[in-house]
């Protein structure tokens, strides 16, 4: 029993909304059935977070209503200026340091940190989110299976990246 616990702790893979993870190189995987219309919602921040974020950090910046990624020591917009008025502010006190998956102690500061030298996250897959997601939330991201692109919702429009 102890060996099984240690093995699962070291090589943990997480499936959300389904029973198994697709592939051995997946750290976090979502329910990707054809009927899926649920994406991943990015944290909404009031401006750029303080400190030195890790490359690959994603946010929805409510200061200018844009989805952004931190890459090569700079913030890059992934969307046009959208509309964050639908965002409901979380007024509860923060507790803890977030969740780190893939390693015992992460070096990045975030709510959910995925760190692994050989595993990746599979985004929720949605066919034509601009048609099939009826009420998208600002900062929602997914993989569009119809156009084969990374899709981000800025609160007004879907933005697509190849």
3D architecture notes:
By secondary structure, this protein is mainly beta. It has one domain (2-161). Helices cover 8% and strands 32% of the residues. The chain has 2 helices and 14 strands. It has helices at 2-10, 129-132, and strands at 14-16, 26-30, 40-41, 44-45, 57-61, 66-71, 74-77, 99-101, 112-114, 120-122, 125-126, 140-144, 149-153, 158-161. The strands form 4 sheets. Strands 3, 11, 12, 13 and 14 form a 5-stranded mixed β-sheet that branches. Strands 4-5-6-7 form a 4-stranded mixed β-sheet, with no helix packed on it. It is globular and about 40 Å long.
Radius of gyration: 17 Å
Q: Give the overall shape, derived from the CA principal axes.
A: globular
Number of helices: 2
**Unreliable segments (pLDDT under 50, ≥5 consecutive)?**
1-10
Instruction: Give the strand content.
Output: 25-35%
Please give a handful of descriptors for the protein shown.
162 residues; 5-stranded mixed β-sheet; 4-stranded mixed β-sheet; 2 helices; 8% helix
């Amino acid at each position: 029993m102890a060996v099984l616990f240690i093995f699962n702790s070291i090589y943990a893979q997480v499936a959300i909304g389904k029973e198994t993870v697709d592939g051995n190189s997946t750290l976090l995987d979502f329910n990707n059935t054809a009927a899926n219309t649920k994406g991943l919602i990015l944290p909404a921040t009031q401006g750029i977070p303080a400190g030195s974020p890790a490359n690959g950090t994603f946010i929805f910046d409510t200061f200018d209503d844009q989805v952004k990624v931190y890459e090569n020591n700079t913030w890059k917009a992934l969307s046009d200026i959208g509309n964050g008025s639908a965002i409901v502010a979380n007024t509860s006190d923060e507790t803890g340091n977030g969740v780190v998956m893939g390693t015992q102690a992460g070096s990045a500061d975030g709510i959910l940190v995925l760190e692994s030298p050989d595993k990746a996250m599979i985004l929720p897959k949605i066919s034509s989110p601009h048609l099939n997601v009826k009420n998208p939330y600002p900062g929602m991201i997914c993989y569009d299976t119809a156009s084969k692109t990374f899709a981000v919702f800025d609160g007004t429009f879907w933005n697509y990246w190849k």
